[in-house]
Amino acid sequence: MKGRFIVLLLIMISGLAGAQQRPQYTQYIFNYYLLNPALSGMENYTDVKIGHRQQWQGINGAPTTTFVSTNMVLGDKYLWRNALSLPENGDPPMGRNYTQNYTASPAHHGIGIIAMNDKAGPLSFLDVTLTYAYHLKLQDALNLSLGTGVGIRRVSIDLNALSLEDPNDPALSNAGKAQLKPDLNVGMWLYGARFFAGASMQQVLKQNLSFSPDYNQGREVGHYFLTAGYKLFVDDEISATPSVMLKKVGNIPISYDANLKFVFRDRFWLGGSYRKGDSFAALAGINFSNVFNITYAYDYATSRLRSYTSGSHELVLGFQLNNMYKLRSTQKMW
User: Fold this and answer.
1) Which of 32, 134, 178, 179 has its CA 20 to 30 A from that of 300?
2) Beta pairing, strands 179-191 & 142-157
């Protein structure tokens, strides 16, 4: 019966208990696209990111996540053709002068793709999602985008990672078979020269998760995100962007993140983050050129897990392809 117990436990973790089922990121403040498809095609360049997160270092079977994401404008027209919206030679591309002369982009379409592999103990999730967004021009300096992501999710259990008394237990009859599930995400994003606000939902379809005919109550739960931030200038070369994110997952209480990011001439940035009841994080990054950048985050656990883990690590490589205006900033505004 040990096999039945393990399978039941896995199902409860993955769905019935309403726990978080999507990967957790610290560097989403540099790549909100992972959480909200409405950011598809927001930049003038093709934005490519490759990332890896090792959560709770030192705990066997702790979650690990690897992803590749890319998004771009649909079509060959550049979004910001007004010369006043472009930086002067030598000016920080996203500096104070840029925001004072900022103009909204014309209405346009954006597309993208995210491939993500997430593993927690014997459970593995492979997601491939195609995204689309339409960006409306509301005012001279204000855009609203609406987006959706449609994909497929592969869910599997590695039986070799389980220690069972009876490998032939009938409770494991379906455990070795990978399951394919459709996936749907939606979102909206309001943005101007110095602020942003967005809302999104992941796992709209809430698929059933079952690895045993005897225990079939597992189910995906919706993940809801609300976020907002505002860019302030310390001087002409240094900006600070405080932001906050509220997250609701299943039946667990609402959690929040409070973030602060400092950017120096769009070349270096440092930041900090606090996740309620979970962790403090330090973030840093550098733009080596207008094509390549790298960011790193370290999370220090404040929950009961702090006695068992040395923390979490997250590394992301960014590429800005077809970057016509040679901007170093990884985000057009923030």
Assistant:
1) 32
2) antiparallel
Amino acid identity, position 85 = S
Q: Is 321 exposed, middle or buried (0-12, 13-18, 19+ CB in 10 A)?
A: exposed
Tokens representing residue 285 in the block:
């990054």
pLDDT digits (tens, 9 = 90+) for 179-234: 899 999 999 999 988 899 999 999 998 877 766 665 556 678 889 999 999 999 99
Instruction: Please tell me the pTM assigned to this model.
Output: 0.85
Identity of the residue numbered 269: W
Look up tokens 């039986």; give the residue: 159
Nearby residues of 223 by Cβ (< 8 Å), 6 or more positions away: 20, 21, 22, 201, 202, 203, 247, 248, 249
Long-range contacts of 164-170 (CB under 8 A, 24+ apart): 164/2, 164/3, 164/6, 165/1, 165/2, 165/3, 166/2, 166/3, 167/3, 169/1, 169/2, 169/3, 169/4, 170/214
Question: First and final CA of the chain: distance in angstroms?
Answer: 54
> CA-CA distances (angstroms) from residue 10 to 157, 195, 211, 216?
9, 41, 9, 11
> What is the total residue count of the chain?
334
Q: For the beta carbon of residue 250, count every other beta carbon within 10 angstroms.
A: 19
Determine the Cα–Cα distance for residues 138 and 216; give it in Å rounded to an integer: 47
DSSP type of residue 177: S
Strand partners, 115: 68, 128
